């Protein structure tokens, strides 16, 4: 079987479009169609069906996609292993969330690149649940997530550290003027939150519910930087990882509001699949990230 056909199949499945797959691979649509037909003939199944003017994978297509991902992953591992000589080379696909990518990883990535300049680091951001799914499916070599402790038989999980989740506000906010803030005082405050599915948004929601406070928000944003700017302009208060607001707290553009009833901490975790073959570059990066544990 021509492995190029599997690459084409994965690309069509990714975009749910023969045309888009052809554009991304540099093929004419007719060539993409021919390759998919050859795969269907090879396996004796239909891989795609049309639905409302679009295409989607059949059950057989979904099953083949799982095998195709494994095959391509194994080929990539073989290429990388054989290409690594005295100096580390190849690439690493790393999944993480915005706060970790922007406020934790940079010094570690800098140190790694200084030691191993020939290794390409492909950093991709997403929410934690999708990152975990991506690790299981082979989309990422590893992921660094900020979430409650993960327990999963398919994953190797290492907790790097505990990260406080802190409440921040504009310096002249009325809560910042109080000597003591009771969590029930938050019931009338305008809350700015991260996007749906974000791990610490769920933690905050649980905090509110546990104290019988109605969880309502005034603004929802998918960017930590945008949330901080909105808080600084007095549009509301927000719970964010301490690592994401340390600079603003030091400068005084934001202040931390201490809540005795809400000592919230999330686990910064490095995860990869238990069956994942560890290249030398991956071993070196994971060692660098967990060296202080």
Automatic annotation (TrEMBL):
GO molecular function, one term: DNA-binding transcription factor activity
UniProt entry tagged with the keyword Translocase: no
Sequence intervals crossing the membrane: none
Gene3D superfamilies reported in the protein's UniProt record: 3.40.190.290, Winged helix-like DNA-binding domain superfamily/Winged helix DNA-binding domain (1.10.10.10)
Keywords from the UniProt entry: DNA-binding, Transcription, Transcription regulation
SUPFAM superfamilies in the cross-refs: Periplasmic binding protein-like II (SSF53850), Winged helix' DNA-binding domain (SSF46785)
Any one Pfam family match given in the protein's UniProt record, by short name: LysR_substrate
Alphabetized InterPro entries for the sequence: LysR_HTH_N, LysR_subst-bd, WH-like_DNA-bd_sf, WH_DNA-bd_sf
Domain HTH lysR-type: 1-58
Family: Belongs to the LysR transcriptional regulatory family.
Protein's UniProt name: DNA-binding transcriptional LysR family regulator
Biological source species: Anoxybacillus mongoliensis
